Amino acid sequence: MSFDAIVVGARVAGSPTAMLLARHGHRVLLVDKATFPSDVLSTHLLHVPAMACLREWGLLDAVVATGAPPHERFTMDFGPFTIAGPPPAVDGVAHPYCVRRTRLDKILVDAARAAGAEVREGFAVDGLLRDDTGRVTGVTGPDGPVEAKLVIGADGLRSIVARETGAGTYHDTPSLTACYYAYYRGVSGPGAEIYQLGDRAVVVFPTNDGLACVFVACPIERFHEFRTDVEGHYLEAISRVPALAARVAAGERVERIRGTADVPNFFRESSGPGWALVGDAGYHKDPCMASGITDAFVCARLLADAVHAALSGDPDGERELDAAVAGYVRARDERFLPALRLTCQLASMEPPSPETAALFATIAASPAESTRFFGVLQGSTPIPSYFDPANIGRIMSGAS
Ligand SMILES: Cc1cc2nc3c(=O)[nH]c(=O)nc-3n(C[C@H](O)[C@H](O)[C@H](O)COP(=O)(O)OP(=O)(O)OC[C@H]3O[C@@H](n4cnc5c(N)ncnc54)[C@H](O)[C@@H]3O)c2cc1C
């Protein structure tokens, strides 16, 4: 059987893409070398726009039912000042949540299956099929060759679809940080806590099962020193926030500390004859904005809409399909380039300029302005308009 689309990778980028295409009536095969439920390296905050996507897709109740608590407020402590408050609601959805990937990804893959996608777990793609023009026409894996009009790589940072198509990267910045996290019982507060203190960031995200995910990042230059004593350096970073250190000391760590320094920042060429990339495979960045899942949802919707429109126009129109996928990539880059730049700026952990420090202090003094600022971090307020000189002038003048 030939499919309209094969989606390689069934997590936060792949499953929604497959689900949306299947709901439009297209024949979709969704494969992953993993089986579900299973975990992945991620601290898994879902910003409000991601929760709004889940609501639109009819999955909000299932995700909330996992028992992860709503984050009623964000606290960003920069030392001299703290920006705190609730993030802005999006489409009637008020709170971010931090949902374990074991739960979230299972809900998403089941939703793709329920939508009519054929799902094969434990299916490792080991190559791509091509016709004599070089067009990608399918994948090879444990069940032999499988054909499709479009192969979508939702297969993460080390994407095999990207490797096999020779997709290059652009707007590259190498890894700027090393990141470590663990889960604690007895540490959760009422929301997300982010401490940016010198050359360490410390983050607390309350999550499922009464646990908190406690995350520490250091500049990449400190990675080798950090890994000589991961636990010691991890706890030293937390000790820079004495009240949190006391909670962590009184709490109980229930899982090992996990970490990575493999967090490069780039867009990757994400379209070509018969293929596309979505999620981390096509757009990867440092986790400091905790936006990989939110962005993957948005891109899944952009790609599925583009592919659906092309397949509905002329189901055999290869040129239309390729043009539609190229249009998705342009829309993705236009939307996310400012976020990629801001991510690199934050991940550099350089002290803010005096102008930025003054801006942040002014924002911190106003609850309404703090909520607007969180709109930038969660991706619901466009970055260029927020940092536009006229808007900065408005903030600094104290106008509402
Ligand atoms: C330390 C850390 C903290 C983070 N914290 C957050 C956060 O708080 N919030 C947030 O939004 N984002 C966070 N992120 C980013 C987020 O985890 C990613 O953006 C997200 O996982 C990307 O999802 P994806 O579906 O594109 O890829 P992945 O989650 O990487 O999934 C790719 C899938 O493809 C499958 N696959 C790969 N190769 C093959 C193959 N050959 N055949 C078949 N299947 C294959 C894999 O098995 C995997 O299941 C964090 C990342 C890191 C590293």
Structural description of this entry:
It comes from Dactylosporangium roseum. It holds the Pfam family FAD_binding_3. The chain is α+β, with helices and mostly antiparallel strands. The protein has three domains: 2-44 and 100-173 and 263-347, 3-Layer(bba) Sandwich (FAD/NAD(P)-binding domain), CATH 3.50.50; 177-260, D-Amino Acid Oxidase, Chain A, domain 2; 354-397, no CATH class. 39% of the residues lie in helices and 26% in strands. It contains 14 helices and 21 strands. It has helices spanning 14-23, 48-56, 60-64, 101-114, 160-165, 223-228, 230-239, 242-250, 292-313, 318-347, 354-364, 367-377, 383-386, 389-397; strands at residues 2-8, 28-32, 45-46, 73-77, 82-85, 97-98, 118-121, 127-130, 136-141, 144-153, 169-173, 177-185, 191-197, 200-206, 211-219, 252-253, 258-260, 265-268, 271-272, 275-277, 283-284. The strands form four sheets. Strands 1, 2, 7, 8, 9, 10, 19 and 20 form an eight-stranded mixed sheet that branches. α1 packs parallel to α4 (101-114) and α2 runs parallel beside α9. The radius of gyration is 21 Å and the shape is globular.
